[in-house]
């Protein structure tokens, strides 16, 4: 977790889960470990983050239309686009003065798993629980506080499936979701997509992850009953987000999203 603290008395906490797609089986997870080791282990990460000066803040070329944050590994730093949830400008961002927790991604399971398999750890559920415990024990997250719980892409899908559990675990805390590009939809690919090494339909990927990552901890009893024959639907944006009990704000990027790249308009 990279923390941008504010002040001892502040009771507003945006918590943002980093994105980075996922892997869906032994072959893709081993390939990810070789090509993107930072996505499966935190061993090379630094322990601190710093904000870049305003003069050098630039959104990446493939930036989402929604607010952005990217991180570099050596040394790690916050790089913020103008405006959005990461901005320190209180005239445009009501969360500008909040204590900000940015949670980096190394579980390759869209924050949904809790298992050791393929010689790797898929512990998205456990990481989210540990971060919340830290915020409660050390950072002042307590009844009367506000928590904006969200993320981008895989982080958004993770925030989506955790949102109701997080709210239930924090009585007295006002919890709201912020989902940037979580809305995968169940349409077949329009053709081969060389930019997506996993291939296949997005719903098939969700089924594959459900099959190995022990995601039952983020599937509510209500959703499991509704989709008893296809429980992986409870991990899928178009099916799951509308079942959330707690308020959320969605945003869907038109670029930089695996979902839209697969469709032909």
Topology:
Elements: E1 2-4, E2 12-17, H1 26-35, E3 69-71, E4 78-80, E5 100-103, E6 115-117, E7 120-122, H2 124-138, E8 146-152, H3 154-169, E9 174-180, H4 202-212, H5 221-226, H6 237-240, E10 248-251, H7 258-261
Parallel strand pairs: 2-5, 2-8, 8-9, 9-10
Antiparallel strand pairs: 1-5, 3-4, 6-7
Folded structure, characterized:
This protein is α/β, with parallel strands linked by helices. It has one domain. The protein is built from 7 helices and 10 strands. The strands form 3 sheets. Strands 1-5-2-8-9-10 form a 6-stranded mixed sheet, with helices on one face. A hairpin with a 2-residue loop joins strand 6 and strand 7.
Total helices: the number is: 7
Share of residues in helices: 10-25%
Give Rg in angstroms. Answer: 18 Å
The portion of residues forming beta strands comes to 15-25%
Report how far the terminal alpha carbons are from each other: 39 Å
Overall mean confidence score, pLDDT: 77
List how many beta strands DSSP finds.
Answer: 10
* Count of structural domains: 1
Give the low-pLDDT segments: 49-82
Structural class: alpha/beta
Could you give the order of the helices and strands?
EEHEEEEEHEHEHHHEH
Largest sheet, spatial ordering of strands: 1-5-2-8-9-10
Large-scale geometry: globular
Largest sheet: 6 strands, mixed
Summarize the structure.
This protein has 265 residues and is of the alpha/beta class.
List keywords for this structure.
alpha/beta, two-stranded antiparallel sheet, 7 helices
